[in-house]
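Table S2 (text version). Query chain:
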Amino acid sequence: MHEGMNQGPGVFISFEGCDGSGKSTQIARLADKLESLGMRPLVTREPGGTPFGEKVRDLLLGLESPNRTILSELFLYAAARSEFVAKVVRPALSLGRIVLTERYTDSTLVYQGYAGGVSLQTIEMINAVATGDLEPDLTLVFDINNPHILEERFARKVKDKIESRSGEYHEKVREGYRELARRFSHRIVVIDACQCLSKVESAVWEQMVGTLAKKGYDSIKKRN
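Corresponding structure-token output:
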């Protein structure tokens, strides 16, 4: 650990956004920066992160998985999330780790709520039970307002079951994230993911530095 860098309390950061917005890339870049400072971030994902969660992930996202109602989908995500919080996130936070997760509760609010039509109140209640009301310290939403960028990215991959849904569905997802950012401005920051990777990375790092400072970590030199 670098001189002057203390192990602070656990910090929980979620990365959100529409499919193809660059979450995985930015999590990896942030983890590399934190590791270069002698910190040990835990990188994980939802659904997943546990053996049970990975099985649920296959069921939810596999192209050959059975069709289901949106409400059934909600309960599957909640079951995986309960395991995820109990067996991955809370233990890591109790050890003072920085947890970086690709997706968390906000994904359910937008995919099954705003886009899927399930009552937001119902989803918030189920999320609260599944997580024990555990909220991220910071949520970064990667927003892409240029459909051509997404088209180019998806041209290089096979879409999963949810990525294969209609353009109208995914536009509702994007608008849902923007609405959540207005509702939960104390923790959600929208980042323009249409920028070049280095600019997005700098924006992520700026938010990370601020969050670490709030949590009582030693000051960290901003890096671009």
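Notes on Table S2: Confidence is low (pLDDT under 50) at residues 1-6. The chain has eight helices and five strands.
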